[in-house]
DNA sequence: CTGTTAGCGCCTTCAG
DNA sequence: CTGAAGGCGCTAACAG
């Protein structure tokens, strides 16, 4: 059993070379002879020296080799949600080949004073902040770190680098499909528009001030289209739910359709909501689309499988774009003396999937 | 605009207190007066000091606040595979409330010399190694780091902390169900048993030496049960495929059933394989289970949905157990002078789901 | 409750 | 191609 070298310095001492030389053996192979390098690496292996300590290295180089993703929801929810799993897959893809890993940072809604400790303490080179409300404390904490930050989806009104879709424009084809089929009495179902819980009807006038920009954009986009078709947006019933599990969505459909039995169509801002409508319709004996037209948003696999008329957004591509953008910002920071002044902003395309849940109204 | 304090020391200097005091304001609130603490925190906020630098802190405390997960496959595959997504969800759950994040470390099969750099450079407190072949280079690299390592699923024959199921025992109820229904001519379909690609028939005698312990265990468990029922394991046809996508699985079913048309049942070591059999049976006009009985393994959602007779394993619980076990090892390392000598080993329970794809053979 | 003293292990000049 | 020196920013231990 050979003595154990636990640091670069001790290994250097044992071999009778300088620390630099050992360091170079790992990091700058062209700075020493191949023979010496081999000898050093072999000696290291023999003594169980695992190579330069990553922490010390990071401290010195100011580079970690990890990018953080802030997922606001309880982290294990993120793995149950198809969209965020796809997003993570995209980020993983973006880092493939890079010398960076992805660090998942749970940033739950628990408003402990130190809710931001995880992001404050995370050992990463930058953050991707995935879909949080404007004014989110974790986002603020990430910015406070003075590291590159890329925002994904929301908030959409900051000066930070951004990757997302144009929700307001993206939903219009769905609204248009309903209008073109001849619908005039259309209700809207949306997931929460604000961080604060508020289930039930929301006046159209309140939508503008909502702090969850994604849902706000979708509702506004639909209203834009309705308005353009001569429908008074103030007369469009809008129902929201804070949680988007199946029972909530069905209940939202019930609330909307029992209070407004004259509706011939429901536009939903998420596929989950649309499923709620489909389920409620089935439970109450209505046929879709003969008795009721429905549109969704997101284009999750199950929606396409079920033939839902919906808007497909590229979740994986978003993840990849966000990952790459952050990586570029990190690299630029090392290279440039002065960071470039234009903030990257990438808007990805969406597509409307016609599906089979829109048809002309019965009467 | 106030001067910017970029380090703890500079902030301390500007405030005329010692660095310790500032450090304590962040880390040991009970070591100074609330008033002073407030004053320090306020001054920090005013100057944009983001708090103690995480890298320097980690370097000093030898603690990062992140645990690494090694997923051998190309990382974005991991997000397409239900089992590994559930596993990650479990890990996320285990770290919830802990001051640890999860770092995903892609450890693709690219056997570059430095394939292990990511794991060699990862700034983490320990590793969970998820389902790799025995002798995997990334596992070796993780061990070389002298950090706590927890193995999940495989390899199962090391002295490392382990979380998994007893694959060999777990599959026996599926085999037994087929035997009890009266089947005697049963084929086996398995995903790759070795890292090296080898599609097609595998002699039962070769299974023992397979380096992918999970699949090996399942095949051996089935053979155990067959043997106990008086069937010569040497006569049981075993077909493998390296890749488990749908076409491969269907093709495996074709290969098995065309060469052995007398089989009345197929035992599969994964649900994906069983789907391949179901699809092939449907395509060739056989009814399951009337004409052919089929069992799977894993218990993915879709399998249960489809009524497959299969073994359900608790993927999320595995992730949670692995995460917690690693966390404990990390904490113990800080506390204990001498690490405890018994290596934790946790075997989780599986359940056989009867489903509806097993019935007595026709003749 | 506050301050002083020592490094943590490495990489990067810069000089041979 | 190699070596010596300095410091990255912080916290643990101890002493006031």
Automatic annotation (TrEMBL), chains A, B:
The record ties this protein, via InterPro entries, to: HTH_LacI, Lambda_DNA-bd_dom_sf, Peripla_BP/Lac1_sug-bd_dom, Peripla_BP_I
Q: Which Pfam families match?
A: Peripla_BP_1
HTH lacI-type domain boundaries = 6-61
Q: Cross-referenced SUPFAM superfamilies, in alphabetical order?
A: lambda repressor-like DNA-binding domains, Periplasmic binding protein-like I
Q: Provide the alphabetized UniProt keywords.
A: DNA-binding, Transcription, Transcription regulation
Sorted alphabetically, which SMART domains does this protein's record hold? Answer: HTH_LACI
Q: Which domain of life is it from?
A: Bacteria
What is the protein name for this chain?
Answer: LacI family DNA-binding transcriptional regulator
Provenance organism: Corynebacterium suedekumii
């Amino acid at each position: 059993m050979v003595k154990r070298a636990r640091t670069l310095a001790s290994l250097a001492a044992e071999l009778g070379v300088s620390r630099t030389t050992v360091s170079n053996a790992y990091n700058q192979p062209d700075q020493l002879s191949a023979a010496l390098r081999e000898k050093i690496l072999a000696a290291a292996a023999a003594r169980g020296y695992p190579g330069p300590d990553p922490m010390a290295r990071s401290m010195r180089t100011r580079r970690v080799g990890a990018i953080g993703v802030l997922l606001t929801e309880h982290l294990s929810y993120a793995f149950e949600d198809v969209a965020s799993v796809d997003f993570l897959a995209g980020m993983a893809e973006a880092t493939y080949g890079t010398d960076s890993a992805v660090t998942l940072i749970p940033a739950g809604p628990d408003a402990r004073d130190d809710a931001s400790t995880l992001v404050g303490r995370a050992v990463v080179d930058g953050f991707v902040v995935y879909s949080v409300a404007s004014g989110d404390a974790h986002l603020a904490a990430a910015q406070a770190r003075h590291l590159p930050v890329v925002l994904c989806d929301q908030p959409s009104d900051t000066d930070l680098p951004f990757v997302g879709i144009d929700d307001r424009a993206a939903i219009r084809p769905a609204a248009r499909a309903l209008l073109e089929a001849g619908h005039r009495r259309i209700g809207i179902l949306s997931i929460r528009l604000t961080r604060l819980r508020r289930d039930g009807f929301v006046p159209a006038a309140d939508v503008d001030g909502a702090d969850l920009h994604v849902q706000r954009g979708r509702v506004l986009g639909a209203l834009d289209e309705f308005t353009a078709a001569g429908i008074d947006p103030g007369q469009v019933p809008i129902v929201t739910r804070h949680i988007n599990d199946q029972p909530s969505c069905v209940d939202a459909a019930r609330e909307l359709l029992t209070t407004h039995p004259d509706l011939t169509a429901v536009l939903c801002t998420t596929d989950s909501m649309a499923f709620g409508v489909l389920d409620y319709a089935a439970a109450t004996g209505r046929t879709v689309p003969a008795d009721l037209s429905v549109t969704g948003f997101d284009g999750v696999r199950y929606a396409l499988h079920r033939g839902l008329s919906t808007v497909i957004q590229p979740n994986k591509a978003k993840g990849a774009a966000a990952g790459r953008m952050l990586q570029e910002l990190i690299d630029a920071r090392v290279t440039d003396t002065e960071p470039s002044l234009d903030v990257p902003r990438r808007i990805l395309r969406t597509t409307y999937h016609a599906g089979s849940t829109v048809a002309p109204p019965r009467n």
